[in-house]
Design brief:
Ferritin; globular; single chain; about 65% helix; mainly alpha
């Protein structure tokens, strides 16, 4: 099995090592090859993030604290898996190797995934799941809003569809953060502990690399760092209302967008991909 990149390797070397899926170069379109490769990378980052979070949320099905939230979380999971179909489906088309969304979801190994680390973390208690969802939703809405103006029409079309669902997800998760944060002493303690744990992982949403620079220059996607102000404008008032303190540390956990993951993702994929790996090509 190939070894994973050393987490101490400088970012430039990691970026080079992670470029494992360059898009094919068209015979008379060599100048567009870098943009196509960057677009494929971006699409897998978006699709892998929604896929992994959708699967994590699906793990709550039948285990929610109350029936209403059990169903609500399951519905959000379905929305995210539906968005994954669009992102990874377009990624397969851009790659030009005949891989479908299902192929990309079920037949890649852990180091080929480009999701942020936040979404692969175990669910923890319900408060931790909701806090993770809220931080994701605040970023997701900001990203999708920017992507609706993408110079790539198909990216803009996906964003226009997905942002309607993302607004609802954000409204729901923000409401639960306030209710639990400003609830009982026990619920407040759990929500603050969840925020303290997850806040450093949210920083990965706003880290930029060479791929982001190519996409921003082409007008396909925004520079991730440019989304931070919108994220803060959404998150901080909600946390204030929830009587939760934002952790002071500016440190950001990173690596997922370059294929460097926690041990949790490998275990999750072993379960998620088992049927397709055990019975290649099986269909319902």
């Amino acid at each position: 099995m190939p070894s994973l990149p050393d987490v101490m390797t400088p970012d430039a070397a990691l970026a080079a090592a992670a470029a494992s899926h360059p898009a094919p170069e068209a015979p008379h379109d060599a100048a567009l090859a870098p943009a196509r490769a960057a677009l494929f990378e971006f699409l897998t980052r978006m699709g892998d993030t929604t896929l992994v979070l959708g699967h994590r949320l699906s793990e709550w099905c039948g285990h929610g604290p109350v029936l209403e939230e059990d169903i609500g979380v399951a519905n959000i999971a379905l929305d995210l898996i539906g968005q994954t179909q669009f992102w990874l489906g377009l990624a397969g088309e851009i790659e030009g190797k005949g891989r479908s969304a299902d192929d990309l979801a079920f037949l890649r190994d852990v180091w080929e995934f480009r999701n942020v680390l936040l979404v692969e973390l175990p669910n923890g208690d319900f408060g931790q799941t909701i806090m993770r969802q809220f931080l994701f939703d605040a970023w997701h809405v900001a990203m999708l809003r920017a992507l609706t103006a993408s110079s790539e029409p198909r990216v803009a079309e996906i964003a226009v569809k997905a942002i309607k669902e993302a607004h609802y997800h954000l409204e729901k998760s923000a409401d639960l953060v306030v209710r639990l944060g400003d609830g009982t002493a026990e619920s407040h303690r759990r929500m603050q502990a969840a925020l303290d744990l997850l806040w450093p992982y949210a920083g990965e949403f706003f880290l930029s690399d060479a791929t982001d620079a190519v996409l921003a220059e082409a007008g396909i996607a925004p520079d991730p760092a440019s989304l931070r102000s919108a994220f803060d404008a959404t998150v901080r008032p909600v946390l204030d209302e929830a009587t939760l303190a934002v952790p002071a540390s500016p440190f950001a956990q990173k690596g997922g967008r370059r294929g460097i993951h926690t041990e949790h993702l490998g275990r999750m994929l072993a379960e998620m991909q088992f049927l397709q790996r055990a019975y290649p090509g099986a269909t319902w």
